[in-house]
Amino acid sequence: MTRKRPPKRRSGCPVNAALEMLGDSWSLLIVRDLMLFGRKTFREFLASGEGIATNILADRLAKLEANGIVTRQRDPEDARRVRYRLTEKGIALAPVMLEVAVWGATHEKTAAPPESIRRMKDERDRVLTEIRAKWEAEGEGA
Amino acid sequence: MTRKRPPKRRSGCPVNAALEMLGDSWSLLIVRDLMLFGRKTFREFLASGEGIATNILADRLAKLEANGIVTRQRDPEDARRVRYRLTEKGIALAPVMLEVAVWGATHEKTAAPPESIRRMKDERDRVLTEIRAKWEAEGEGA
DNA sequence: CCGGATCCGTTTCGATACTG
DNA sequence: CAGTATCGAAACGGATCCGG
User: Fold this and answer.
1) Which fold has domain A14-140?
2) Which nucleotides of C are covered by protein (CB under 7 A)?
3) Which nucleotide is the nearest neighbour of A44, by CA and C1'?
């Protein structure tokens, strides 16, 4: 007689809706790797410097895919390789990512290049445009 | 011989730094309650609709306070009451909050008033100014 | 009543070893 | 390379209790 825990309550608040998917320590870091650092493979995410475990990474990638934030496809050139890519919904997180980076750099001790943070603040729209352009360019080869 | 888990690895990435504090399902919801909904007391957070447990809420408030995002003070009028308030560092999360709300409203099913979301997109700077002004006004009475 | 703290079962996380 | 399997540790969460 294992008593089940009731499902998490859902509110219609968009902030809550977003946090249902992104409210953990790893998901947004994977999105960051894809969006800002050009990482695309399981191994590259693993080497990101934060030390995520393989099972957790696999789990989060599956959830991100299930939520339509990333897509997963085998490399036609090298069948061992799997390439992850942000969807339209995923790249739409760019403004969130920018603001999080700016807040973190402003209020915490970080090793971020001051110049890149300055650009995120002062040339916000331009940086966003560049991120999207880069993402679209990468999509060409897919 | 209880083997302890090694401490979480820290990278200098500002996104990671921010997620150390905000990378869970509840912390940002509490900030939202303070920032957007004018909630200030333990009881009001509890009634927020998402059903947080009292022990979790107490834990998150303590962490947010330890991280300098909220302050805590007893109500001089009613000694039973405790008022929480965003710090400068906390109100600086407004741009993050806005972008999260916009993303959630755009890509998930939510009950957010379309008009308020439209304003967050089209009149971003004005909305941010209003949030800060309201926060400063509330501070007067403290 | 308000703002928690404690207890304790359930669930998730996470390090490591292992597999296709 | 890209993941599973395992299993102990830690976090969560519901109920309940407590000091003011």
Assistant:
1) Arc Repressor Mutant, subunit A (1.10.10)
2) 1-7, 9-11, 13-18, 20
3) D1
Q: What is the pLDDT of residues A24-74, one digit of tens each?
A: 999 999 999 999 999 999 999 999 979 999 999 999 999 999 999 999 999
Please choose, from the candidates A101, A127, A121, A129, the residue with its C-alpha nearest in 3D space to the C-alpha of residue A32.
A101
The three-state secondary structure class of A73 is strand
At B88-132, the pLDDT tens digits run 999 999 999 999 999 999 999 999 999 999 999 999 999 999 999
* Nearby residues of B90 by Cβ (< 8 Å), 6 or more positions away: B31, B34, B35, B64, B68, B69, B70
Instruction: Verify whether the Cβ–Cβ distance A100 to B14 is below 8 Å.
Output: yes
- In whole angstroms, C4 C1' to A71 CA is 44
Encode A63-88: b = buried (16+ Cβ within 10 Å), e = exposed: bbeebebbeeeeeeeeeeeebbbbee
Nearest CB to B15; choose among A8, A29, A51: A29
Per-residue confidence (pLDDT) for residue A141, from 0 to 100: 63
Q: B86 — phi, psi (to 5°)? A: -70, 140
Q: How far apart are CA B7 and CA A142, in angstroms?
A: 39
Residue extents of the structural domains in chain B: 14-140
- Decide if B114 touches A, using CB distance below 8 A: no
Q: Name residue B82's beta-bridge partners.
A: B74
d(CA A17, CA A40): 26
Q: According to the model, what pLDDT value does residue A77 have?
A: 86
